[in-house]
Amino acid sequence: MSRNIRPKFSPTTLPTPMNRPYPAPRGTVLLLSCMDLRLLDETVQFMAGDNLLNRYDQFILAGCSLGADMNQHWETAFFDHLDVACKLHNIQDVYLLEHRHCGAYQVFLGEAGTFDDSAPGQEQERLKHRDYAHKLAEKINAWGQQHGRPLRVRSFLMDLRGHVELLDAVI
Fold it and tell me: Where is this region: Disordered (predicted)?
């Protein structure tokens, strides 16, 4: 019985780091991403492309930043996790990895979370993701200041092919 097994990344097969318009992470990163199963491999590739293979903690919420905003329990769980990750792994950078065509946006926001593939629709979607990511980034920065842990937060938007754009470089 044959199984379809996905290849694993090794140091010799990692994607070449692209010229990224932000400084390299200083150490271990906490990644908040969405639960979308279509982008699991692409998420690992993105992190490996930032030289973060085996150097990041991952926390997953439906809708990524929106999930933390819409559900107080999830926001509390995220910040509890951030606290433990900082203590155990000296987190200095937080990545918020949003993605296009997010079903959680449709669940939480209804029609306001549904975007078409036209240029104006894609721009609306990008701005909505940016706004929720920025809102959470502000809370992360406030948390870091309260706990004496300066954190750099970067937010990204991934499309369904795994292409990633920077939403905010350093917040």
Answer: 1-20
| Range in 96-100, 105-109, 160-164, 167-171 with the lowest mean pLDDT | 167-171
Instruction: Provide the CATH number for the domain formed by 29-168 in this structure.
Output: 3.40.1050.10
Instruction: With beta carbons less than 8 A apart as the criterion, state whether 14 and 48 touch.
Output: yes
Tokens at residue 71, please?
């559900």
- The strand pairing partners of 164, in sequence order, are 158
**What's the CA gap between 134 and 65, in Å, rounded?**
9
Nearest to 159 by CA among 116, 96, 109, 101: 101
Within the chain, where are the H helices? 40-49, 65-70, 72-89, 103-109, 119-146
Q: Which of 139, 136, 151, 141 is nearest to 25 (CA)?
A: 151
